[in-house]
Design brief:
By secondary structure, the chain is of the alpha+beta class. The chain contains six helices and twelve strands. β11 (421-427) and β12 (430-432) form a beta hairpin. The two termini are 33 Å apart.
Length: 438
Amino acid sequence: MKRIAAGMAVILLAVTMFGPSDGYAKKTSVAEIDKQLKQLQQEVQAAKAAQEKADSRNQEAKHYKNKTTLNLDYVLGQIAQVKGEMTTISGKIASTEKSLTVTATELDEAEARVASREKLLESRVRLMYTDGAVSYLDVLLSSTSFSDFLDRADSLKMIVDQDQDLLVQHKLDKQTVITKKQELEGQYATAKQLYTDLEAQRSMLKEKEAEKQELIAYYDEEIQNSEVLSAEQDAKLVELASSRSALEAQKDKIKAEEAARRAAAAKAEAQRRAALAAAKAAEKAKASKSSGGDSSSVASVEEYSGGDGPYLRPVGYARISSPFGYRTHPVTHEVGKLHTGTDFAVPQGTSIHAADSGTVVLAQWYSGYGYCVIIDHGGGVWTLYGHIREGGIKVSQGQRVERGQKIAESGSTGRSTGPHLHFEVRINGKPVNPMPYL
């Protein structure tokens, strides 16, 4: 709202300060001014396009920055996950190394047991099989009885079976230990490779994080640049609007000289009629006082005395609910407050028409007027239409409107006690009684 008010102030100041002199107005033709206005319009369109492009770049940069930030968060999550996996794998590697140490110790002990038992078996087998079957028969034949023979045969068989079974078990244990060692060594090598892969992945993720940070910095700069560009285009649009308003004022001054003369004549006639009406009212009051009547009933409501002015009535012959002049403000209750226009009592949504042709210099919310339209008719004459309903403005700033064209719909926005149209006429920015102009 502050930017709008500032822009409006610039436009009003430009119109007031940079109005063309009479000599220059005579030298410049309407066609030349139209040509300049056309060129200004092209510049306005280019500035608006640049502003829209800057806004688009700004939104796009913000979108990709947010997207990049989400990607970065995902990458950081991946890094955390990788660190967790690395910790787990490091534990597995330590466990594997411990298992290898245990296995190596068990292997050494098993090999020692096998070697010791092989010596025992070798000694016993050599004793048993030195003479082949003879030694075996000697053991059996040295029996003292048949039962002793059977006991010796069973004992020999048990010893041979136990020794052979022991030898087989030792061989199996040795092979199992060797196989387990090979398996653990393979697992250890795999774990080492996995650790190396994770380190490589961690380096890659670090690079990706750095890349994302660079993208964020780039998009931050892009956002800042686009915002600066948008602000520059906004200032340029205000400048162009001021120039256009000045040209329109110059053009209208050339075209409105005759209208101004007619307005002056109408004003003089209105003043003459007002003086005549005042004189009649004074005579009536004097007569009423001399006859003993109640003077408080005289001129309780000012009678509408317009209809012959140069401008159209914006809402037709509507009832005047509050005329131009000093009054007690109906909202703030301030006593002696100047009412700068005329209020027409009309229902919500009543069509409002331009009092005369001109250029719209404001079409938006305007302080206590609520939604408001101001039209520059040239020659320093403006008309103002206040308290328009929300969404009821039908024209835009800079638009050329024709006499009688619908520009808005009545409402009760701003400082208002009910639906009506507040209508003003301003000469060189100063509000005057609008009735002589209607």
